[in-house]
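Standup notes, structure subgroup. Blocker cleared on the guanosine-5'-diphosphate input:
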Amino acid sequence: MSQASALVVATFSRRMRLRQADGIEVDARIKGKLLRPVCGDKVIAEPIPGESDWLITDICTRHNVLDRPNLRGKTEILAANVELLVVVAAASPRPDWFIVDRYLSAAAGMQVPAAVVFNKTDLEKQDASTDTELQDYSRIGYPTLRCSALSGAGIDALQEILAGRIAIFVGQSGVGKSSIINRLIGGEQQRTATISNKTGEGRHTTVNSMMLTLPCGGEVIDSPGVRDYAPAFESASEVMRGFREIEQASQNCRFANCRHLREPGCAAKDAVNHDAISPRRFESYRRLLALTEKLDKRT
Ligand code: GDP
Ligand code: ZN
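Run returned:
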């Protein structure tokens, strides 16, 4: 029996589509009940004699996961092996930069590079505050760009950022994530892809998560769960990791465990006072820390 590693490119419940090393795609089911592969997973699979289905026998070590607690309090994994997290904000609904910061923190927690995309520039009135925010993100190392899924402006620049990587799009509902993805793939066709329901029955179901190949060579993992993803934070150290400029400044704080609140000799606060750190980002940090600590006390 020939085992091979393959990439999960679409899922519908426990039905999977795999892309093999040679690019050929096959449908697959999963051995046993314990394995739960998701889009982006690299898996070990083998052909099933006499069937067109393959059988997934193992999941290779994941580099990272996008996960969230589900209603039963268990952790649900939405995607794996993500290489870029694109945080989308827009001219409308009114941008909430605190939410953008939360997504960027989640990316840091996943150890995934992130970019900030500001969509619906066609609706934008000259707004200096958006410039300032985008510059602040760019200053701390996040690629940023403006685009319009409607007019196509800025989409080329976005393609360049996405080229050769497996990305996901996150952000508030209504900012245009689906529209941007449609624009990138040149229509909706690919997104209504189906997966055979059961061998031989010829029935097909619409997938609930899939990897879309972009003309630029990049890939986007798309699903309602990924698009609706909202990060949850569990610890103060997790929050701190998400604010790289604060973390960097903190090397000069008097106390090694400084949380940059009321401690004396706080280099992060100094940096804010000298405009080396954005006061708005610092406020986000404090807000997120306070939220996390409230959680800490409750549990
Ligand atoms: P999602 O919830 O983030 O996936 O957002 P959608 O892609 O569903 O878009 C929400 C709404 O914004 C829809 O009515 C889109 O037509 C609209 N929209 C998306 N991108 C743009 C854009 O660049 N400009 C304008 N004017 N509207 C947009
Ligand atoms: Zn400090």
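Discussed briefly. The two ends are 50 Å apart (CA to CA).
Next: hand off to the docking folks.
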